[in-house]
Write a structure and sequence with these properties.
The chain is α/β, with parallel strands linked by helices. The protein contains twelve helices and nine strands. α1 packs antiparallel against α10, α5 runs parallel beside α6 and α10 crosses α11. The protein starts with a helix and ends with a helix.
C-alpha cells in the first residue's frame, strides 16, 4: 500500500515538474519575443530623430543663439561646429580655452558667429558670468545646451571618494547651476529651450558606473520636475529636454576616471553624429525625453518592461567588456579634477582601439 502511494506521489511530482519546466520555457520564449519587439520598436522609431537637418530646418536655426556648455570636444564640439554651418550664433563654454578658440574659428569659417567664455560648470560664479556675457553680447538665448560631463569607471568601493564627489559636482550640481541660469534668462524673455544631456543610464543603470548612473538618473527626474513647474506656472514657451544617448565614441572614455584596471570599454558603441543631429533637431521641436538611436530606445523600453532581466543582462555585458576584454591600464582620475590635453575631437577612435584590443586578446589565447 505504502509503495503504491509513493509511486503515485513520485509520478505526480514528475508530471508537475515537467509542467513547470514547460511553463518556464513558454514564459522565457514569450520574454525573448517581447524583448526583441522592444528593440524592433526602438529601431523603427529612430531614423527621423537622428537625421541631419534639411534646408528648411537649417533656415530655422540661422540667427538663433545657442549656448553650448562642454563645447571643447565630444558632442558639444560636434553640435557647435554644425550649428556654425547653419548660421547660428554659438556661445562656447568649457574649461579648455585653447580648444574653445579652435572651435570658434571653425564656427566662424562655417558661416556662424562665435563667442568663447571659459567656464567650469561646477562653479556657480562661472556659470553666472557665462549667462551675463551671453546677454551682453546677443541680448537673448534661444537654446541652452548642457553637455559637460565626466565619468568614473570601476567598482564603487575602489574609486576614491573625491573623484565620485567631483562627478556629482560636474554632472548634477553643475547642470542644476546652468539650468538655473538658463531658466532665469528664459523667464525674463518669455521663451527658450533647455537641453540637458542624460544617458541611456538615466533609465537603465550599468555596473561599474554607479555614481555616473546616479547623476544621469537624477538629471532625468530633475528635468521632469522642472517641466511640471514651468507648466503649472503658465510658462509653456519654456521647454526642457533630456537627451539620452547610448554609449558613444567620444573623448568621454579617455577623460573618465578609471580604477577598473583595464581600458575603458562598452559594447556596440555608436558614432557621435547621431547625437549631434538629434540635439540640433530636438532644439527646433522639443520633446521631454529623447533616447538617441535604436539601442538607447530599446534599452529604455526593455528596462521599463523587464527591469530585473535588463539589469542582469546589461551588467553581464559591461562586466565582460570592462573586466574580461580590456587591456591593462593604470588607475587614473582622468579629467575629473583637471582638464586633459588629449581628447580634442568630436570622435576619439575608441571603437578602433577596442577592435585592436579584441584582436590582441585573440592572439593571447
Amino acid at each position: 500500500m505504502i509503495a503504491h502511494l509513493l509511486n503515485n506521489t513520485n509520478g505526480c511530482l514528475s508530471k508537475l515538474t515537467l509542467a513547470v519546466k514547460q511553463s518556464q520555457k513558454h514564459q522565457l520564449k514569450q520574454f525573448y519575443i517581447s524583448f526583441a519587439f522592444c528593440l524592433l520598436v526602438g529601431f523603427m522609431l529612430t531614423g527621423c530623430a537622428t537625421a541631419k537637418l534639411g534646408s528648411s530646418g537649417q533656415a530655422k536655426v540661422k540667427g538663433k543663439t545657442y549656448v553650448i556648455v562642454g563645447a571643447s570636444s565630444g558632442f558639444g564640439r560636434g553640435v557647435a561646429e554644425q550649428l556654425g554651418s547653419y548660421g547660428a550664433n554659438v556661445v562656447l563654454a568649457s574649461r579648455r580655452t585653447d580648444l574653445l578658440e579652435e572651435v570658434a574659428g571653425k564656427v566662424r569659417a562655417n558661416g556662424g558667429t562665435a563667442m568663447v567664455v571659459t567656464t567650469d560648470i561646477s562653479k556657480p560664479d562661472d556659470v553666472q558670468n557665462l549667462a551675463a556675457a551671453v546677454v551682453k553680447q546677443y541680448g537673448k538665448v534661444d537654446v541652452w545646451v548642457n553637455m559637460s560631463g565626466v565619468g568614473a569607471i570601476g567598482r564603487f568601493w575602489e574609486i576614491p571618494l573625491e573623484d565620485q564627489a567631483k562627478v556629482i559636482d560636474v554632472n548634477l550640481k553643475g547642470v542644476i547651476y546652468a539650468s538655473y541660469a538658463a531658466v532665469k534668462l528664459f523667464k525674463a524673455q518669455g521663451y527658450g529651450t533647455l537641453i540637458n544631456m542624460g544617458s541611456v543610464e538615466s533609465e537603465s543603470p550599468l555596473a561599474y558606473h554607479a555614481t555616473y548612473a546616479a547623476t544621469k538618473g537624477a538629471i532625468l527626474k530633475f528635468d521632469e520636475a522642472l517641466s511640471q513647474e514651468l507648466r503649472l506656472s503658465g510658462l509653456k514657451q519654456i521647454k526642457v529636454v533630456t537627451v539620452e544617448p547610448w554609449a558613444v565614441d567620444t573623448p568621454f572614455w579617455g577623460h573618465a576616471a578609471n580604477y577598473s584596471g583595464g581600458t575603458a570599454r562598452m559594447a556596440a558603441m555608436d558614432g557621435p553624429e547621431k547625437v549631434v543631429n538629434a540635439v540640433i533637431r530636438v532644439s527646433l521641436r522639443p520633446r521631454k525625453e529623447l533616447p538617441v538611436g535604436w539601442k538607447a530606445r530599446g534599452a529604455r523600453n526593455s528596462h521599463r518592461l523587464f527591469p530585473r532581466f535588463t539589469e542582469w543582462l546589461s551588467g553581464n555585458i559591461v562586466h565582460k567588456q570592462q573586466y574580461k576584454k580590456s587591456m591593462p591600464k593604470e588607475a587614473t582620475s582622468g579629467s575629473v579634477h583637471q582638464p586633459m590635453s588629449t581628447g580634442r575631437g568630436v570622435e576619439d577612435g575608441v571603437r578602433d582601439r577596442m577592435k585592436k584590443e579584441n584582436e590582441e586578446k585573440k592572439k593571447q589565447r
